[in-house]
């Protein structure tokens, strides 16, 4: 841990600890906890009013979208730690605090990088997306090859040229169009480079433009990962550029020159996991942990959409954050036999970085984690429907845990469960996009509670006023009842023999 992160950690820890400790000093000692039984849960401690209050606070413009690796994420993390201390849970992070610090590494194009086609100056990752950061200097004629069919390519000598291609086609194997599109970027550009092209410029068609509008903002920041990730390695290769469909009218004009002067830089940022614990009551089982998981970050401040530049992330994932605070109140009111461990993972939107780091460097013995219950986007769509990811092979790594979750649903909210989102054939690959995944890869029984995607996903429209708070409360109840059952049963959830994910 470098001196900057340590100093930042001490500062935030001080901010989080000072006021609540002063308040605690004025209170009388709490009465001894009642004897825990598997039947005497504290479901009544989970209140819709608390959940709504907490979510409005966390998803407010004040935190500017809580972007991973920024002061906004750290400020939101301090607020969460303050709420946790007020509830009364023990810190379970580094050095007696609620915080576990880690580095995320950012690789991006420098601001001095330049790109142009003909007389048009294009700002990299603003007017034109650079698919992978690369150091490249190119000056070459631009040739347009239509959709790049063999017949069209047969008419053009691409050697030493920058090649412009209009995107076309659709997936035929059940994957999402987004995954198809990025696979096409990779395969088609590789073929053109083999033929001698020195750069490839993809131009969106109508379906690709929808993906461009929704996802191109991820390129503004560059790439993120944990230090040492292979995905951050800068490969010296010709540039691959992605343009909006409005560029077609001018990009296909003959006689234009493509020029690029791209340079890459890389540096580290601090991010943080927030970790708290409610110790169990059983002399033996309290050494085991039921881990309740979520993430506190979102997409931050970006280019305005309809005049709004703050991606508040109310459903993604202030819903999970508010749910965990409510579940903490229930475990504080009535502890279970096993310990309840709560982890808010930082920088999830950067590639599950906080959960990847915590699962590799847990603050409790790794073997003590008997189950992971993950909350991800739980407050939208039909009020009577939800999904439990990790319940369908090949994603199911514990039938035991799944059966407890299904029983908890029947005992509590009785959601109609949509199993399509958990299938290996689902085009969104939703199972692979949240914080339970690193734990499942380690073989730890893991499930994810979600009400899945919607049209406001990763847009500035994902605001607190759009959340169905009655549904979110029922989702929270379901997650709590599952965790309560796991925390009180003598046997830990059994692991599925032969568990292996499809990718």
From TrEMBL:
SUPFAM superfamilies, per the entry: PA domain (SSF52025), Zn-dependent exopeptidases (SSF53187)
Signal peptide start-end: 1-18
Domain Peptidase M28: 273-478
UniProt GO molecular function: metalloexopeptidase activity
Gene3D superfamilies: 3.50.30.30, Zn peptidases
Record key words, sorted: Signal
Claim: Signal is one of the keywords in the record: yes
Domain of life of the native organism: Bacteria
GO biological process entries: proteolysis
Protein name: PA domain-containing protein
